[in-house]
Amino acid sequence: RGWVFSSGEALPSVHGSGEIAGGWFMWALRDAVAGAGFYSDGRKASAFYDRLAAEVLEACRAGRLDCSEPVLPFVTGLNRETIRPIALSLLRSIRFMALYERFDPIVPPSTGNEFSQTKFRLLTGSRPAPLDGEGGQEGVRTSIMRIAGVAYRFLTPVLLVASLPAWMFVLARRRPWRSPSAELALAASALVAMVSSVAIVALIEATSFPAITIRYLHAGYPMLIVFLVSTCEALIGSCVSRE
Q1: Which of 27, 29, 5 minimizes the C-alpha distance to 17?
Q2: CA–CA distance, 203 with 211 (Å, rounded to integer)
Q3: Each residue of 2-57: pLDDT tens digit?
Q4: Can you tell me the distance from the alpha carbon of 184 to that of 190, in angstroms, rounded to the nearest whole number?
Q5: How far is CA 178 from CA 18, 53, 175, 230, 240, in A?
Q6: Largest CB tally within 10 Å, which of 7, 210, 220, 231?
Q7: 163 by DSSP, 3-state: which?
């Protein structure tokens, strides 16, 4: 019931249906397997999951279950019903990142208590954020970061729209027999990394649970900045060169 409630709170489309949605199912399955006593040791749990997977695969092959071919393990198979949600999630992810939505330089307060904070500090070797109610973190540094966040929010969409054709322009002007410049290669690598990060988050959003957040997209932000800066440098270098 806990996972039914959690998934219903996060996804209004299944709220009140009694169904366990998307990515919460694997946690519900894990709890059910543990409750059945299969988690007494690793080998026993692995053997159970192997047997379960074999039974599901056999049911799919025999037509007792309506199954789609998986692209990768733990990834939902692509079909007509999932292509549109994935495409829409991809657009939302790009918009979320380009507009720096929900950006806040203040780290949210930690949960738990002083004892758990001490354990966290010893385990990670880092200083956790203060507990809720222990005072804010406003200061000169935070104010500067807020201003920077506003600047990024306005400039990034414009630069991103301009950088994509600029990158293609520089690529088209490059001589086929010449190696790409370091800036062009760096921009291409950053673009691939950024698109990969966004695509993974969009896939999770469409098939499992809400994932379009700064927490899940944070790996793409540095790559976005690297792509914009490298493309500008490559464009300037291409225009001033006399190849």
Answers
A1: 5
A2: 9
A3: 667 666 666 656 556 667 766 777 888 888 898 899 988 889 999 999 999 899 88
A4: 10
A5: 61, 51, 5, 18, 17
A6: 231
A7: helix
Q: Are 156 and 98 in contact (CB under 8 A)?
A: yes
Place of tokens 């790996």: 219
- Identify residue 217 by its one-letter amino acid code: L
Q: Any idea what the Cα angle at residue 150 is, between residues 149 and 154, rounded to 5°?
A: 115
Domain coordinates of the chain in residue numbers? 73-106+139-240
Cβ count within 10 A of residue 189 = 14
The two tokens of residue 122 are 């010893």
H/E/C letters for each residue in 29-96? Answer: HHHHHHHCCCCCCHHHHHHHHHHHHHHHHHHHHHCCCCCCCCCCCCCCCCCHHHHHHHHHHHHHHHHH
- What 5-10 contacts at long range (C-beta under 8 Å, 24+ apart), as own/partner pairs, is 7/209, 10/209, 10/210
Q: Which of 92-96, 160-164, 179-183, 229-233 has the lowest mean pLDDT?
A: 179-183
User: Please, are residues 234 and 168 in contact by the beta-carbon 8 Å criterion?
Assistant: no
Please name every residue paired with 131 in a beta bridge, in sequence order, or none if there are none. 110
Determine if the pTM surpasses 0.70: no
Question: Between 206 and 92, where is the model more confident?
Answer: 92
pLDDT digits (tens, 9 = 90+) for 67-86: 776 655 556 566 677 788 88
- List, for residues 135-157, the tens digit of each pLDDT value: 555 567 778 888 888 888 888 88
Q: What are phi and psi of 131, to 5 degrees?
A: -70, 155
Q: Exposed, middle or buried: residue 132 (CB in 10 Å: 0-12, 13-18, 19+)?
A: exposed
